[in-house]
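// run 5 | inverse folding | seed 20
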């Protein structure tokens, strides 16, 4: 069971890292307004990095034996759900920048 969870966390972390790198080098090739494109790029960068770092922390805790597999899975799932919801909030709304 520990090996399966370690593999799952490794794949999730690698996928998050790929999403981050892809978002960094993405260019606006379609006719999307630059504001909308920048917002999507920001969301993908945020989601990729949080997915990578939560999976890396979960894998570290799993390998050190600090927490059990159930606690790690619940923690990683909770953190990723929270960060996904936070990535949908526009920075103007979050910091009171007077968005539209």
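// decoded
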């Amino acid at each position: 069971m520990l090996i399966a969870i370690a593999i799952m966390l490794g794949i999730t972390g690698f996928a998050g890292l790929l999403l981050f790198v892809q978002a960094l080098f993405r260019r606006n090739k379609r006719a999307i307004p630059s504001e909308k494109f920048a917002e999507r790029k920001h969301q993908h960068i945020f989601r990729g990095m949080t997915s990578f770092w939560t999976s890396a922390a979960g894998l570290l805790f799993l390998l050190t034996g600090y927490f059990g597999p159930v606690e790690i899975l619940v923690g990683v799932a909770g953190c990723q759900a929270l960060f996904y919801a936070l990535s949908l909030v526009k920075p103007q709304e979050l910091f009171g920048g007077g968005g539209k």
